[in-house]
Amino acid sequence: MKYTYYGQSCFLLEADGKKFLFDPFITHNPLAKHIDIKGIEADYILVSHGHADHVADLVEIANQTKAQVIALVEVADWIRKQGVQNVTDVNFGKAKFDFGMLRTVWATHSSSNPDGSYGGNPAGFVLELDGKAIYYAGDTALTVEMKILADLYHLDYAILPIGGHYTMDADDAVVATKYIDCDRVIGVHYNTFPPIQIDTEAAIAKFKRENKSLFLPGIGETIEL
Questions:
Q1: What is the percent of the chain with per-residue pLDDT over 70, rounded to a whole number?
Q2: What is the pLDDT of residue 29?
Q3: First vs last Cα of the chain: how many Å apart?
């Protein structure tokens, strides 16, 4: 399985011959100016919630790739109104797709669509791909709802926000790893804007002190999971 980071909370997972793009926000991110979205390929696009820093490039990439877009009901309705045809709505719980089972899980945050319309609830996702279980938390504060994941899965990796201010910071993300029983974390949602700028070396050290690993690939970098 491969993971490519595109900045903020946007990343691509490649597994089982499929490409899964999450929360596409690239062209409006000053740290990702070197990324050409026309070169991005995707079979599926998963959207955790409707905030602009998660959907700014969604319509263009969806139309470009013809990917199947997966989002919660209210965000999916907004996406269809933008002219995107291949959209599947989900809600909390499990849903079956041709790549396998997707579980939509709770996130403690807010959600609205770019036009100000109601965005429903924010969410995270758990996917089982290429023999691994991957948890993407979306934008969330620390919440005890995470504890159920340790009962349901043996998570191989967790993709967690670490920037603070709007979401968990590194300290809370360390606590989250104990809730979900996962020692390998990929950090997202940090450094893009002044309120979420962090000391990355200090964050890595906090995880290391707890015998956990925090991976922070550069924007455009691909790592093997």
A1: 100
A2: 97
A3: 5
Residues 161, 189 contacting (CB under 8 angstroms): yes
CA distances from residue 21 to 10, 37, 41, 155, 182 in whole angstroms, order as listed = 7, 12, 8, 20, 22
What number is the average pLDDT over the span 162-187?
Answer: 98
| Residue range of the domain that includes 219 | 2-224
Query: What is the Rg, in whole angstroms, of the alpha carbon atoms belonging to the chain?
Result: 16
Split into its structural domains, the chain has a count of: 1
**CATH number of the domain where residue 21 is located:** 3.60.15.10
Q: Which long-range contacts (CB under 8 A, 24 or more apart) does 12-18 make?
A: 12/40, 12/42, 13/127, 13/129, 13/134, 15/129, 15/130, 15/132, 16/99, 16/100, 16/129, 16/130, 18/43, 18/44, 18/99, 18/129
Backbone torsions φ then ψ of 161, nearest 5 degrees: -70, 140
